[in-house]
Design a protein that fits this description.
Low-confidence stretches: 11-17, 151-158
Strand order of the largest sheet: 2-1-3
Distance between the termini: 36 Å
Helix content: 40-55%
Shape: globular
Largest sheet: 3 strands, mixed
Strand content: 15-25%
Order of helices and strands: EEHHHEHHHEE
Radius of gyration: 15 Å
C-alpha cells in the first residue's frame, strides 16, 4: 500500500496539509498514533485488498482504519509526501456525525480484532491495546458521552 499527503479542512474552506511521514512496517505506529492515512489517498493492490478481505462494514465509521491496520500488519507501507488530494470534512459525514456511542463501540470492536488476531505471543502489543481501550473509555466518559473520535482527537460535537 502507498498513501500520499492530503490537504484537509472543514466546510469553511481552510485546508491544512497533514502528513503521516511513516514508511515500512507501520502497524504499531498506525495503532498507537491513530489513523494518519487519509481515506482518499491509499493505493492498494487488488490482491492485497482481497487478501485482507477489504473493508469491514460492521466498523463504520472506522472501517478504513481497520483495513489499513490489517494491511500494515502484513505488508510494508510507503508514503508520498506530496499533497495529491484535497479532503473536506463536512459535519454531515459519517465520521463526524456518528453518535459518540457508535464511534466508541466501533473503536472497541476494532481493538478486539487487533487483540484477537495480532497479540498472541506479543505481550507488549497486548498491553498497548489494553491501554488504548482504557484511554478511549476515559475520553468517552470525560466528554460527557458527546462525540469523540479516536481518529480525530479534539473534535467534539455537543
Amino acid at each position: 500500500m502507498t498513501y500520499f499527503d492530503a490537504k484537509t479542512g472543514l466546510d469553511i474552506g481552510v485546508y491544512s496539509q497533514i502528513g503521516g511521514l511513516e514508511r515500512g512496517m507501520v502497524f504499531e505506529k498506525l495503532l498507537w498514533n491513530g489513523n494518519f492515512i487519509q481515506s482518499p489517498t491509499p493505493l492498494v493492490r487488488k490482491e492485497v485488498f482481497e487478501h485482507t478481505e477489504g473493508f469491514d462494514p460492521s466498523l463504520v465509521p472506522l472501517e478504513d482504519w481497520d483495513l489499513w491496520l490489517r494491511i500494515a500488519q502484513l505488508y510494508p507501507v510507503d508514503y508520498v509526501p506530496e499533497a495529491l488530494a484535497r479532503y473536506r470534512w463536512r459535519m454531515e459525514t459519517v465520521s463526524l456525525a456518528a453518535p459518540s456511542k457508535v464511534v466508541y463501540d466501533s473503536y472497541l470492536r476494532m481493538l478486539d480484532k487487533v487483540e484477537t488476531q495480532y497479540c498472541r505471543g506479543n505481550r507488549s502489543l497486548r498491553w498497548k491495546v489494553r491501554f488504548l481501550r482504557t484511554q478511549a473509555f476515559l475520553r468517552h466518559v470525560a466528554s460527557g458521552y458527546r462525540h469523540t473520535s479516536p481518529t480525530l482527537p479534539g473534535i467534539v460535537k455537543a
